[in-house]
Each structure stands twice: as structure tokens, then as C-alpha cells.
């Protein structure tokens, strides 16, 4: 295939990656808007490099006209979670969607790969609407924790450097590091509630602070300089150590003052 034909071939995959990223990121946004914990920490996506596709086609003797059926990760989406048990929640979210048809799942979280690799993979069929009409493409989700992602990213770059022939001593160290990543995930799971509470507290406080700031700004626009300076000082005193209840009080006071002038 000429470069131009590759570009045309890859168009629906690029569109699928863009759409899937938006869809998954908006799940996170929705949780955050509701002030709830999101099982999705962040999402990345990529279309497979042409060189990497050719390499895979060569390795598995896949003729070019079979690539779209045989290479399942031309469109690749990675979903990162904070905790191991978030992975199941994300898998359930994907299973319940009507716009993504699951072809099969591979659980490398339970069945760790020989290399030490852990992740939950889902291959989906996804309809993309192009100018000429609908095209169904395959896409791969890799769902993993931050620790799994850290390990896989490093191991992947070493594989690239050593052309998949990593020296035994480094392989051994990677295995030990994979165990350490596993332990880290287990330990984080044990203090998950603690961490979630801290994160929630941070979010509640920052949303209170931003609402108070908005009210102070509005007062200042309305020409109520004295009040605005007074509340700004009170807010400054609360920023570091203030309790939620104190911030709530200040928010109520600024709201009542605003109501008086509106
Ligand atoms: P935000 O608000 O910065 O988090 P693009 O191709 O540019 O349209 P995107 O999503 O920017 O798409 O690129 P990509 O490479 O697919 O995804 C990168 C996203 O993952 C960025 O978020 C990064 O912030 C986020 N990311 C990467 N590494 C980490 C990490 O270690 N921790 C966290 N929390 N996020 C990470 P956004 O979408 O730009 O939004
Ligand atoms: P890329 O784009 O470079 O990431 P096989 O190649 O037969 O072992 P198969 O059946 O093609 O694997 O699919 P599998 O096992 O689900 O793996 C597909 C993708 O998972 C890989 O894509 C990697 O992204 C990731 N992966 C699987 N095993 C490992 C591993 O041991 N280490 C790391 N870092 N990643 C792994 P590609 O093809 O490597 O492409």
C-alpha cells in the first residue's frame, strides 16, 4: 500500500480513537461533576504506527487485505485506574454500553503474562460513520492501574531498545519490579477508603473555594469593594487549614451579601 492509501485506511481508526476518548473522558467528567469517585483516572489513545503494523503482519504472516480483521489493536485506548478493583467497574461500564460491541476479553490481571505484564484487555467492534457511510472497525481497550501502566511503559521501551530480546539479567529485574508493582497495588487497595476520603475532601474544599471566589469577584464587579476585600481576607485565612464547615459559612455569608445587592 502506498502512504496515501495507508492514510485513507487509517482514517476511520483515527476517528474511532478520538470518539472513544471523548466518550470515556466524559464518564470521568460526569462522576466528578456529581462529586463522586471516578473509577477512570485518565484515558489515552493512539492509532498504531504503520511500521508496527507491518512488523506484526510480517511476524504472523497476515496478508495486507486481512490486516483490518487480524490486527485488533490498530485503534488502541488505554484506561488508567487508581485501584485494582476500579478495573472491574470500568469493564462493567464497557459491557453495558450499546455503542461498543465486545468481541472478547483477556484478563491479564488474574492471568499475569510470562513477562510480568498485567492489564485487562477488551476487543470491541465499533461503528464509525464516515462520509461514505458506516464502517465497523475493531478497537482494543487496555484497562490497568497506574502501577501496571508504569511497569508496562518501561518494559515496552526496553523491548523496543533490545528488539524484543531483553537480556536475562534485565528480564529478571523486570520480573521483580512487576512483583513490586503488584504489591503496591495490593497495599493501595488496603488504604483505598482513606485515600478516597482525602481526595473527596480536596474536591469538596476546592469547589467551595471556587464558589466563594466567584461571589467575591461578583461583589467587586458590583462596586462593593469593602465587602469584597473583607471576604477575600477571610478566605485567605481559611485556605490552608480551614474546615469544610468554616468554608461553608463563608460561602453562605457571601451569598447573603450578594442577594442584598442583586
Ligand atoms: P488533562 O486535563 O490534561 O488531564 P489529543 O490527541 O491531544 O487530542 P489527549 O487526550 O490530550 O488527546 O492525548 P493522549 O496522549 O491520548 O492523552 C493524554 C492525557 O492523559 C492527558 O489528559 C494527560 O493529562 C493524561 N495523562 C497522561 N499521563 C498521566 C498521568 O500520569 N496522570 C494523569 N492524571 N494523567 C495523565 P488531557 O486529556 O489532555 O486532559
Ligand atoms: P504496541 O502498539 O506496541 O503496544 P501477542 O503479541 O501474541 O503476545 P496479542 O495476542 O497480539 O499478543 O495481544 P495481547 O497479548 O492482548 O497484547 C496486545 C497489546 O498488549 C500489546 O500490543 C501491548 O500493548 C500489550 N502487551 C501485551 N503483552 C505485553 C507485555 O509483555 N509488555 C508490555 N509492555 N505490553 C504488553 P503490541 O502489539 O505490543 O503493540
Task: Describe this structure as you would to a colleague.
By secondary structure, this protein is of the alpha+beta class. It folds into two domains: 3-190, Beta Polymerase, domain 2 (2-Layer Sandwich), CATH 3.30.460; 194-260, no CATH class. Helix content is 61%, strand content 17%. The chain has a five-stranded mixed sheet. A hairpin with a 2-residue loop joins strand 4 (120-130) and strand 5. Helix 5 packs antiparallel against helix 6, helix 7 packs antiparallel against helix 8 (225-239) and helix 7 (192-221) packs parallel to helix 9 (244-261). The chain is elongated, with a radius of gyration of 25 Å. The termini are far apart. The relative contact order is 0.09. One ligand 0O2 is lined by residues 21, 41-42, 44-45. It holds the Pfam family RelA_SpoT. This is GTP pyrophosphokinase YjbM. Belongs to the RelA/SpoT family. GO terms for molecular function: ATP binding; GTP diphosphokinase activity; kinase activity. Its EC number is 2.7.6.5.
Amino acid at each position: 500500500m502506498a502512504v496515501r492509501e495507508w492514510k485513507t485506511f487509517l482514517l476511520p481508526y483515527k476517528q474511532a480513537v478520538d470518539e472513544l476518548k471523548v466518550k470515556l473522558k466524559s464518564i470521568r467528567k460526569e462522576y466528578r461533576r456529581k462529586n463522586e469517585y471516578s473509577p477512570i483516572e485518565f484515558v489515552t489513545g493512539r492509532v498504531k504506527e504503520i511500521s508496527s503494523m507491518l512488523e506484526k503482519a510480517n511476524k504472523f504472516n497476515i496478508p495486507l487485505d486481512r490486516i483490518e480483521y487480524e490486527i485488533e489493536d490498530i485503534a488502541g485506548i488505554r484506561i488508567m485506574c487508581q485501584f485494582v478493583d476500579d478495573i472491574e467497574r470500568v469493564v462493567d461500564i464497557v459491557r453495558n454500553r450499546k455503542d461498543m460491541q465486545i468481541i472478547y476479553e483477556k484478563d491479564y490481571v488474574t492471568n499475569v503474562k510470562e513477562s510480568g505484564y498485567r492489564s485487562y484487555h477488551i476487543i470491541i467492534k465499533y461503528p464509525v460513520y464516515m462520509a461514505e457511510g458506516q464502517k465497523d472497525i475493531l478497537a482494543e481497550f487496555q484497562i490497568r492501574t497506574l502501577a501496571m501502566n508504569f511497569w508496562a511503559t518501561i518494559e515496552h521501551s526496553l523491548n523496543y531498545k533490545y528488539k524484543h530480546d531483553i537480556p536475562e539479567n534485565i528480564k529478571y529485574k523486570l520480573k521483580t519490579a512487576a512483583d513490586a508493582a503488584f504489591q503496591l497495588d495490593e497495599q493501595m487497595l488496603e488504604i483505598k477508603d482513606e485515600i478516597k476520603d482525602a481526595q473527596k475532601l480536596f474536591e469538596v474544599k476546592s469547589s467551595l473555594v471556587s464558589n466563594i471566589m466567584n461571589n467575591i469577584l461578583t461583589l467587586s464587579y458590583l462596586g462593593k469593594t469593602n465587602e469584597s476585600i473583607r471576604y477575600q481576607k477571610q478566605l485567605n485565612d481559611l485556605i490552608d487549614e480551614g474546615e469544610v464547615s468554616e468554608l461553608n459559612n463563608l460561602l453562605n455569608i457571601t451569598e447573603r451579601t450578594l442577594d442584598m445587592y442583586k
